[in-house]
Amino acid sequence: MNMAASSSTTMPPSIPVIFSTKTPYQLPPQKFMIPASWRRFQLSQLINTALALPRVVPFDFLIRGVLLGGSLSEVSNGEVSLSLDSSHDTGTCE
User: Considering the entire predicted model, what is its pTM?
Assistant: First the structure.
């Protein structure tokens, strides 16, 4: 048995996620392996970084029509399809 393979440094569980949206903030229609511990904030950071948005846009996420309020692991039972909804402030104040 290889001792390196059984070391205590295990990878955190990941969940395959497909992002879909009706907003202009489209990601490619592919599976992304997302850490199960991620919450709304980390998912928003991912979208902002992947799209190289000039200003930070906060997002809300729906899973099976329910707003994500905790981590992905709290709502997942395998593959998850996230519906992305923009919740950014549309005001003109800087």
Answer: 0.75
